[in-house]
Design brief:
four-stranded antiparallel beta sheet; 1 helix; 4 strands; about 20% helix; about 50% strand
Length: about 90
């Protein structure tokens, strides 16, 4: 049975955490594709002091309609203090 968006996001967050051991900071986006879901999340790669120096990463995950993770990949990293350029 196909899952809804909220269930897919919850599964993606849980699966990525289980596979990487990283803390999920936020869900950036979720998009239904033809036969799968693309869920993008920001994770904390490394905690630092001060917090502004934490290393954050964006991961794309592809989930099937039943909530099984098909793939994941890290697509970019940044320090928490850094803002993303080119987006206003």
């Amino acid at each position: 049975m196909a899952l809804g968006m909220a269930q897919i996001i919850k599964k993606a967050r849980s699966e990525l955490n289980n596979l990487t051991g990283l803390e999920i900071s936020s869900t950036v986006s979720a998009e239904k594709e033809e036969d799968s879901w693309m869920v993008t999340m920001e994770v904390i790669e490394k905690h630092s002091i001060p917090d502004g120096m934490d290393i954050l990463a964006i991961y794309d995950t592809r989930m099937d309609n039943e909530g099984n993770m098909l793939e994941f990949k890290r697509v970019r990293m940044r320090k928490r203090i850094d803002t993303e350029d080119g987006e206003a």
